[in-house]
């Protein structure tokens, strides 16, 4: 704008001062023509600038359209319902994403992840699941696709989103009931992870990375999400890498559950490893609680010997870390049971009572 104003000033000066400054008529005419051409050049540059802005905006909008279109194709690939139903759900997901500040294509890609579980929860639960995934990402400091992936992996191993219901029982519920259970149970898991994160050096993402290595084995013993989160966080605090910590816990559960190399027999000399029926392994958290009083009275050699029998030569040090820091483990577990989002759960419940009744 400043450059254009300068041009206008000098063009005016040339036209009105030429006769006074230059006496030759031909030179005067030449200078006036040059001023006119300069003016026209400025107009042309302005038009080109406007055209460039319009072209750039058009390209950006077209690019967004392509991205949203591709995201819709990806969503419909996994949703596998009628086109009309898919379009309605897509619009719901875009609206949910907008409330979180996400672009339409980001929201639809998150919905596509959740749509992969539509055979478990039903197609009607995809919008609620997508909303939970976005919430999971914001609370855990993860991008939405990564949060959706981790949430789905944990669900596949523990079925935590179904609560105490089996798949057969869950399928008999109404849509509104399913959505309530999904929401409440997922918020409960977020509560546990976030509470531990707030009181330890471990992040939610790190804990889930550890849990996804052993959660399925732990779930079979009745281990809670809260206890899994506490065990994962403790190993991270003790300096263990996420993958190694997760594999160590998986190995401990596997060796005790299958009595590999006599692991269960060795531990049974001190505490009960199996439940009262003798058919199912007790949770590791319960076993360690019973073992802790004896452990504290043992010497280093006895501790190492039992740890090697339980966890094997590769991972026995990590079992020792769990036992040596058992008080800290109990503290983290207690923190995991604290509820941080009761108001959020209640607000959502009221919404669903009217929307899904």
Provide tags for this entry.
357 residues, mainly alpha, 79% helix, elongated
Task: Describe the protein's architecture and organization.
The chain has helices at residues 2-21, 25-79, 83-100, 104-115, 118-121, 126-140, 144-158, 167-171, 175-198, 204-220, 225-237, 242-258, 263-268, 284-295, 300-324, 326-336, 342-355. With 357 residues, it is mainly α. Helix 3 packs across helix 4 (104-115) and helix 6 crosses helix 7. The longest helix is centred in the N-terminal third of the chain and has 55 residues, at 25-79. The protein is elongated. The relative contact order is 0.07. Residues 58-64 have low confidence and may be disordered.
- Rounded to the nearest angstrom, the distance between the terminal CA atoms is 61 Å
What overall geometry do the principal axes of the alpha carbons give? elongated
Determine Rg (CA atoms, Å). Answer: 33 Å
| Spans of at least 5 consecutive residues with low confidence | 58-64
Summarize the structure.
The protein is mainly α. Helix content is 79%, strand content 0%. The model is unreliable at 58-64 (pLDDT under 50).
